[in-house]
Amino acid sequence: MAETIADTRRLFSKPQNLNDAYGPPSNFLEIDVSNPETIGVGRGRYTTYEVRLKTNLPIFKLKESCVRRRYSDFEWLRAELERESKVVVPPLPGKALFRQLPFRGDDGIFDDSFIEERRQGLEQFLNKVAGHPLAQNERCLHMFLQDESVDKSYTPSKIRQA
């Protein structure tokens, strides 16, 4: 019988220089959710978050953008991605129904610690979704990240790379 011997020779790769090691990454996508701002009074009160995008991926028309979004916009994005894409969409941070009850000793959903916790969850959600190659082709994601306002009556479609 013939013996099979594993090939253990090293692959020869080009040596890495300082520019390769410390230069700009070939492809990057950075999304930050920051600067929460509570707007309005009473029942019309809500919090918006700044969504800042920096990328060099060719699929995005703008390499840098900054928009403001509220929690309901994130819910809309998640629903659109679930309906239109083949991507398993991660969950959003919860609605915090108990925090909306009256006669609480704190500010409920407008409490600083809750807003910070939600901000972190929204940032995680967006980075997971936007990092997925199939989700990057969805028009709703591009609109959410780069258009000043979200047109919720848009026609779903795929983005074609230029």
Describe the fold and architecture.
The protein is of the alpha+beta class and 162 residues long. The protein is built from 4 helices and 3 strands. The protein has helices at 18-22, 71-84, 112-130, 139-146, and strands at 29-39, 46-55, 64-70. It has a 3-stranded antiparallel beta sheet with strand order 1-2-3. β2 (46-55) and β3 (64-70) form a beta hairpin. The chain is elongated, with a radius of gyration of 22 Å. The N and C termini lie far apart (56 Å).
Order of helices and strands: HEEEHHH
Q: State the oligomer.
A: single chain
Radius of gyration of CA atoms, rounded to a whole number = 22 Å
Tally of alpha and pi helices: 4
Mean pLDDT: 83
Largest sheet: 3 strands, antiparallel
Portion in strands: 15-25%
What global shape is seen?
elongated
The helix content is 25-40%
Name the strands of the widest sheet in spatial order. 1-2-3
Uncertain runs with pLDDT below 50, 5 residues or more? none
Distance from N terminus to C terminus (CA atoms, Å) equals 56 Å
